[in-house]
Amino acid sequence: MANKQQDESIIEWLLKGDPSIRWQTMKDLGKSPKREIFKERSKIEQEGWGKMLMDFQDPAGTWGNNYYTPKWTSTTYTLLLLRRLGINPLNERCKLGCNLLLTNGLLNDGGINYSKTKKKRSETCITGLVFGILSYFKLKDERMEMILAYLIKNQMEDGGWNCRFPRGATHASFHTTLMVLEALYEYQESFSNKNSKEILRMRQRAQEFLLLHELYKSHRTGETVSTKMTMLSFPPRWHYTVIAALDYFQKINHEKDERFSDAIKILTKKEKKGKWPLQSPIKGKIWFDMEPVRFPSRWNTLRALRILQWWNQERQRI
Predict the structure, then answer these.
(1) CB 157: neighbour CB atoms within 10 A?
(2) For the domain that residue 274 is a member of, what is the CATH number?
(3) Number of domains the chain contains
(4) Position 53 in a domain
(5) CA–CA gap between residue 13 and residue 56 (Å, rounded)
(6) How far apart are CA 38 and CA 98, in angstroms?
(7) What is the separation of C-alpha 39 from the centre of its chain, rounded to a whole number of angstroms?
(8) CB neighbours of 38 closer than 8 A, spacing ≥ 6?
(9) In the predicted model, what is the mean pLDDT of the chain?
(10) Would the pTM count as exceeding 0.90?
(11) Contact partners, residue 79, CB within 8 Å, separation at least 6
C-alpha cells in the first residue's frame, strides 16, 4: 500500500460493503468502539447477504432441503457461509439448523457422515467441517464430546487429519487439517473451560504440519502442491487455500515464523492498487454471487489486509 491516504481510501471502500464486511473491517482494521462493532454485526441477519441467506431457510430449519448436498446450498454449507459472514452465534434459527446437522449426521463412533448408503462410515473432513459450525454457534450438547473424541483419535502421526486415514493414508490432507484446526479454535472460543490443554496440543501439532509444508509446498520436493491453493477464492467452502490458512494464523495471532514468508509473498504479489481480486470461485450450486470474478474483492482485500497487519506487527517484534 503506497501511503496513508491510500490506506484510508481502501478502508472507506471496505466500509461501503455488506454489513459482514463492515463489522469485520471495524473489528480487525479499525479502532471503533465495541458497541459500534456490535451494532454493525447485528445488521448481518437484518440486511444484505446474511438476511438473504436466512430467507432461504426451509420451514423445517434446513437449507436446500438437505443436510450436506447440494453443494453449496445445503444446510451445512449455508451455515458455514453464515459463520464466515460473522452472524450472531446465538441466532436461534441457525441453532435449529445445527441441531438437525448433529442429530442426522452423528454416527456411533463420534464421526459425521450424511451419506444414505447402508455401509457408511464417518468422514473426517465432514466431521471437522460440521464440528466447526456447531462450535461457532455454541451448541451445548453432550454429543459434542463424542465428536471431539473422534477427532482426537483420528489425528495422524504427522499432526494433521485426512478423510482417507481409515483406508490407509499416511500423510495428512491440507484441506481436512485446516478445517479441523478452525473447528478446534471455534470450540475453544465457545467452550474455553473444556479440554483446553489437550486441544492446544492438538492444534500445535497440526499447525506444525502446515508450517513444515510452508502452507503450500510438498515436503519432498519443495514445489507447490497445487496452484489452486494459491488462488484468492472466496468463499473457500471445504477447499484449502493459502489465504485461508494465513487468515487462520493471523486470527490466533501465531508467533512469527519465517516459514510463512513465501506464502506472504504469494499474497502480496496479487495486490493491485491496494486491493485484491476475486479469483477462481469454487464451482457448485450457489444461492447468489457476492462479488464478481476478476474484479477487486472486498472479502479478499479485508482478509489480505488483516493478514499483512499481523505479519508486519510480528516482524517488528523481532
Answers:
(1) 10
(2) 1.50.10.20
(3) 2
(4) no
(5) 28
(6) 23
(7) 23
(8) none
(9) 96
(10) yes
(11) 63, 94, 97, 98, 101, 133, 137
